[in-house]
Each structure stands twice: as C-alpha cells, then as structure tokens.
Amino acid sequence: MTRINDDLFTERNEYRKHILLESEASINPWEQFEYWLEDARREGIKDYNAMSITTINQQGFPNTRVVLLRSFDANGLVFFTNYLSSKGKDIEGNDKVGVNFFWNTLERQIRVHGVIRKISTEESDEYFASRPRESQIAAWASMQSSTLRTREELENAVIHYTTKFDGQTVPRPEHWGGFRIIAHYFEFWQGRPSRLHDRLIYKVDEDFNWFINRLAP
Ligand SMILES: Cc1cc2nc3c(=O)[nH]c(=O)nc-3n(C[C@H](O)[C@H](O)[C@H](O)COP(=O)(O)O)c2cc1C
C-alpha cells in the first residue's frame, strides 16, 4: 500500500502530442467528435468506443459505468443495454446523463451532457439480430444488475435459453435494447505541456446553433 502510494504522488506525465485550437476545430461538435473517434480507431486503441456514462439514481447519487458506443449521428450517441438494469432504472427516474471518453495515448478526453431516450424497437431489433448468438442468449440469461446467489445460477440460465432457442432465431428480449443520448453540451480536452491544456466547449441554443468557448485548464 505504502509503495503504491509513494508512486501515486510522483506519477506525472507531460502531454505533447496534439493541440486543439479554435482555428482548426470544427464549428460542429458532431464533426469534431467524428474526427477524434476516428483518430482513436486509427490509433488502434482497444475499445476506443468505450464511454463512461453517469446516471442519477433514486437517492440522487451519480452512478457511473462503461458501455460501448454502437452508433452516432447528429441525433445522438447510441448504446445497448438491459432496460431493467440499474442504469435503466436510473434513466426512468432521471433522463439527464453525462458521458466521458478518455483516450490515453491520444491524451484526449471528451465530455458530453445530454438527455436520453429509448431508440425505436426496429433499431434495437436490427442491432440485436447482428450480435453473436452467445451474446443474444446472454441477454436472455442475465437479469443485469440483479443479485445472483451463485455463478452457477447464471450458467444454468444460459443452458436453459440455449436449449429453449435451439434451432431457432433468438428473438430480442423486450427488456433489452438501445438508448440514444441527445447531446446539448460537448467538451473536447487536449492535453498540453505544463498542465496548460486545451479545452473547447460547445453549447447549443434554442435554434440548434452551436457556440464554442474556451475554458481554463
Ligand atoms: C469495456 C466495457 C464495455 C461494456 N459495454 C457495455 C455495454 O455496451 N452495455 C452494457 O449494458 N454494459 C456494458 N458493460 C458493463 C457495464 O459497465 C456494467 O457493468 C453493466 O451495464 C451494469 O451496469 P448497471 O448495473 O449500472 O446498470 C461494459 C463494461 C466494460 C468494462
């Protein structure tokens, strides 16, 4: 414990790889998002599409976990999950979410605020049908976020649904599908030397025009 604590005190990195200036940033945050996501993909970052999403639970506590971005456009960021999970219940009570992408080797972070909506059942069906069969079975077998007495309980549920759907297309469970995060705020953070990082934020007005500001690091 003590040794790692000593290391934490002294762990320090300088960020020198990229810069982010108003003159080169896109006027549209979705385009800027696409550039950076594409950079992360080309960089070969494993799970470059992983994002931390924070919901607010019934007690008012923020609740954060990682999910995978599966598609995006100017309408929002889409991910898939179990609607009856903890996050699903949080979202039912409060539709406001925060999202964070961190790409270590690019020295970049993106922050998004937005409201979240279920995607259409057709969109969920289409994505569910594209998943590997094992993942489809898992969506049935795992009551995500509920308490399991043992690991075997989960494995038995997998056996049960594998048998049940043998020889058939696995249908999408009603409780499993996509959410879309409709963004109204973005922050693009680019690490720079001496902690003098670039931070450009985009806010949208009622006419859906985006405005850029720079924040102090
Ligand atoms: C790299 C990574 C990707 C993940 N992708 C997803 C995902 O796309 N959907 C999902 O429901 N859970 C995903 N998870 C699991 C979630 O982090 C979380 O454990 C799960 O959704 C239950 O969260 P909840 O109890 O807050 O609802 C992922 C975890 C990691 C580490």
What is CATH's topology name? Pnp Oxidase, Chain A
- The total of beta strands comes to 9
Mean pLDDT: 97
CATH hierarchy, class: Mainly Beta
Q: Architecture, CATH level 2?
A: Roll
Distance between the termini: 31 Å
Give the CA-based shape.
globular
Q: Stretches where pLDDT falls below 50 for ≥5 residues? A: none
Cα gyration radius (Å): 20 Å
Tell me the number of helical segments per DSSP (H or I, 4 or more residues long). 6
State the major sheet.
9 strands, antiparallel
Beta-strand residue fraction: 25-35%
Structural class: alpha+beta
What is the number of independent domains? 1
Please provide the ordered H/E string of secondary-structure elements.
HHEEEEHEEHHHEEE
What is the CATH superfamily classification? Electron Transport, Fmn-binding Protein, Chain A
